[in-house]
Amino acid sequence: MATIRAVTRKKKNKAGQLPIAIRITKDRKSTFLNTGQYIDEKFWDERNRNVRKSHPNSKVLNNFITGKLAEANDKVLKSEMKSEYETVSEIRNKIIKKKGLDFFTVADMHLQNLKNRNKHHQYDTEFGRLKKFKEFLGKDSLPFNKLDVTILKKFETHLLHRKNLSPRTVVNYLILIRTIYNLAISESIVDRGLYPFGKGKMTIRIPESQKIGFTADEIQKLENAQGITEAQQKAIHIWLISFYFAGIRVGDVLQLKWSDFNDGRLLYRMNKNSKLVSLKVPEKAIEIIENYKDESESNGLVFPQLNHIDLNNTEEVSKRTQSITRNLNRRLKIAAKQLGITKNISMHIARHSFGNISGDKIPIQMLQKLYRHSSVTTTIRYQANFINKDTDDALDSVINF
């Protein structure tokens, strides 16, 4: 009799998280079904083989795992009821229905995984990209053996020259296709030998992007803003709070609660990767948030934009946050123009501005903590946009004679 259990695999992803899998064991031989979900080791309950309640999305993830277990158990029971003997590999192939799954079927699996992880903004973005890929192909299905370098090259050219998308945006489309292909390989739906990416095939090179942040003088213009509307002032307040806390994302700023502030520190869990963050509350930040105490409602939010929204409905919060961010960015642009700031401004520029001013003043390991990056390599790449002292000194040493 085969046994089925939810387990975590040992090989971590780039974010240091363990993959959650369904293990099928028969005759002391095991095979694994990848669920596409990853989790920090501390959130996995090995004894009960589920996600701990301390994880912010534990209920959703556990329901998802239960569904995968039920699906696998149903197929195993049907296999056991047959008279002929089946190995674990044969059982696994029947569960994943190895034959006949095309690229867009696996793409739907990928999108569903995003929904299960409450990645609603990413879901919307990638759903739109897949729709454009279908429009380019002129059909709703694509066998993996037809997804080759030629199609990928033509699609890249189409996006660059027909749709006039930026090279960085085009790379995002190709990364999505590669991600779905890798999911198909992990599920044994397609042979790795058909893989169209890599050296000598379709190579994905992320173009260098220029990240421009504000200077201290420009930020002081925002801090001392006069002659702007109340709505514009509130947009600047949210931007400054993001900047004061090392560029925390707008979605996290909008969900800050009064209960997150204790003993002069901000303690909150990031929505993007569920990391717990503890930061000192600067005096400048205190001066801003004190203005909003009278607007506080029963949900305890500091800023009022998400009042009257069910914060447990992650999809509704995501869509509302996107709408609010668009409005904030529009008001920021108007205010910046009135204040004589010529650089482009958006909520995300607050993060770039922190990087620009910190430059090479702060050790990279400390910046990694402030940015909440999982890898110091990510911090080094990010901060490279803003560290110019060495190159400036080198240039001066040559031309100043």
From TrEMBL:
<feature type="domain" description="Tyr recombinase">
    <location>
        <begin position="209"/>
        <end position="396"/>
    </location>
</feature>
<dbReference type="InterPro" id="IPR010998">
    <property type="entry name" value="Integrase_recombinase_N"/>
</dbReference>
<dbReference type="InterPro" id="IPR002104">
    <property type="entry name" value="Integrase_catalytic"/>
</dbReference>
<dbReference type="InterPro" id="IPR050090">
    <property type="entry name" value="Tyrosine_recombinase_XerCD"/>
</dbReference>
<dbReference type="GO" id="GO:0003677">
    <property type="term" value="F:DNA binding"/>
</dbReference>
<dbReference type="Pfam" id="PF17293">
    <property type="entry name" value="Arm-DNA-bind_5"/>
</dbReference>
<dbReference type="GO" id="GO:0006310">
    <property type="term" value="P:DNA recombination"/>
</dbReference>
<comment type="similarity">
    <text>Belongs to the 'phage' integrase family.</text>
</comment>
<dbReference type="Pfam" id="PF13102">
    <property type="entry name" value="Phage_int_SAM_5"/>
</dbReference>
<protein>
    <submittedName>
        <fullName>Site-specific recombinase XerD</fullName>
    </submittedName>
</protein>
<dbReference type="InterPro" id="IPR011010">
    <property type="entry name" value="DNA_brk_join_enz"/>
</dbReference>
<keyword id="KW-0233">DNA recombination</keyword>
<dbReference type="GO" id="GO:0015074">
    <property type="term" value="P:DNA integration"/>
</dbReference>
<keyword id="KW-0238">DNA-binding</keyword>
<dbReference type="InterPro" id="IPR035386">
    <property type="entry name" value="Arm-DNA-bind_5"/>
</dbReference>
<dbReference type="Pfam" id="PF00589">
    <property type="entry name" value="Phage_integrase"/>
</dbReference>
<dbReference type="InterPro" id="IPR013762">
    <property type="entry name" value="Integrase-like_cat_sf"/>
</dbReference>
<dbReference type="InterPro" id="IPR025269">
    <property type="entry name" value="SAM-like_dom"/>
</dbReference>
